[in-house]
TrEMBL record:
The keyword Ribosomal protein does not apply. The lineage of its organism: Bacteria, Pseudomonadati, Pseudomonadota, Alphaproteobacteria, Rhodobacterales. It comes from the Bacteria. It comes from Paragemmobacter ruber. This is Peptidase M3. InterPro entries: M3A_DCP (IPR034005), MetalloPept_cat_dom_sf (IPR024079), Neurolysin/TOP_dom2 (IPR024077), Pept_M3A_M3B (IPR045090), Pept_M3A_M3B_dom (IPR001567). The keyword NADP does not apply.
Amino acid sequence: MTNPLLAPWTAEFGLPPFAAIRDADFGPAFEVALSEARAAIAGIADQAAAPTYANTIAALELAEGALDRVSGVFYNLAGADSTEAREALMRELAPKMSAFASEITNNKRLFARIEALWAARDGLGLEPEEMRVLTLYRRMFVRSGAELEGAAAARLTEVKARLAVLGTQFGQNLLADERAWFMQLAEEDLEGLPDFVVDAARAAGRERGQNGPVLTLSRSLIVPFLQFSPRRDLRRVAYEAWVARGANGGETDNRAVAAEILALREERAKLLGYPSFAAFKLEPEMAKTPEAVRDLLMRVWAPAKRKAAADAGALEGMLRADGIAGPLEPWDWRYYSEKRRMAEHDLDEAALKPYLGLEAMLGAMFGCASRLFGLEFREIAGPFYHPDVRGWEVTRAGRHVAVFLGDYFARASKRSGAWCSAMRSQRKLGGEQRPIVVNVCNFAKGEPALLSWDDARTLFHEFGHALHQMLSDVTHGFISGTSVARDFVELPSQLYEHWLEVPAVLEKYARHWQTGAPMPVDMRTRLLTAGTYDQGFATVEFVASALVDLAFHEGAAPADPMAMQDEVLEGLGMPRAIRMRHATPHFAHVFSGDGYSAGYYSYMWSEVMDADAFAAFEEAGDPFHPEVAARLERHILSAGGSEEAEVLYTRFRGRMPGVEALLKGRGLLEVA
Ligand SMILES: [Zn+2]
């Protein structure tokens, strides 16, 4: 019997034959697809013909056809609907796929062809997109060490292997510290805690084999404890344990691990010819240089610190009113801030939810895309990969644009969080290929399904990523859709969240699921102003972490990272009652892998851009302004990675993003 993953997919829209695929088909399909891809790549590298763009780069683009198809289906299923068999296969595939990726970048004959094209590039008559793709291919090879020979190449391999070990160790140490600590709570210690915290503490107690409730260092338990517990003594013990993760001495202490990681990263960057690890990491990003990152962070820092100082004054007043003499401490901030929030912005979630039914919010999400980009959505019948999954054909003026799948409900087989993946991405090379895009969320399944405000934002966020994939209009798959710089990829998603907050959108779509009545105006106002609450604190704790991350990677690696951390914070004048969101010994973003090293800033970079981009609509006087929407599609949503991000952004906005819209959005402008 033929493997349905490898046979031609003849269903409507070229959808994968979901109903026919068995778990046992994946392993053999990957074997065949990998060996086909290897043969195709060897054919390109070893051919006698002189290198041309077509026989090298374009050929590489099409070399992994079956592998793309099989991976697209498998990795989506492995995250959204996992089984033991799928998990086992994922573990088995991880080293095979990474070995395959390094085989390509280590292939000297292939790199020689790319170098020959690079040297002759100006005489090749390349289209701008082809020049861009050639540049990116060469950069990918160079950055993974293709130019190195002999001892340097061997050392780079060693450094990378050691970094992988240390990154894993950092994460495991942190997990060990988080698992080891808990605090038993007596019944009277539960006073003042909301039911969901009490329930979570009792569940944690049972899980740890204790008789009563316990507090653990899990963010979802300790943060609400710090928010709600009136017991200042317990808050202090809990807080101090929380910030000591990774710095408790002994075998799980991460401080020496961090120092070794930083030294090896510096060595890796120098081997590749970069002055610092930050210079290496930022090269492909929109920010480009450490100076640009620092400049942005510092422009946000000063107003955030002023706002935090004003808030600290108000909170300290509440502390005094409770009869406590000392200054406001880090374990006090969340508690008094929550009290203040309740007084000023309290929203009754239970009363809000009936206005945020999933059907209503899908209507809003599709409705905004129709007004902005002229897209139409028609629900199509499955079967898809799980009975909960729904599908829509996306068209414009009668032409097929994409297939969009929505997989919205939590289930045991789905990993937590929310994401967007392309089961098939857009490209034109080798024949027009339109995308199949999946949004995966973890909403509670109810009858009907009612969302929280956070859920509704997530729905819009992931759909922003989906639009980036669906509206993609480029030739090469290598740069299509969301294949853009890390500090640029969240722009479409965070930007799309803004349309959920347009009062007219809420008025039209946020209607009570039973009565059809619109959301009361007072509720809407509270909802829309709650977003700016306590942003001085949030911004200060974030920016401090981002600046420490930058300092670690910018110059010579510090022998004592903790001393450097203290120095940076002192230089900033860090407020007493706020600490870094992630201190060095538990800064997993930066140390338990390469993902966000010298890159923690990128969350804020994206937020600066989404606020600035939405301001373009506000300046035009209409959140659906047709010309601004057309520019957004032409220069950003359809352009993928066809140009450097700053070029794309400048084409859309006429200039680089400014921080004013972010400061306004976070409510940081009012304290001058
Ligand atoms: Zn996102």
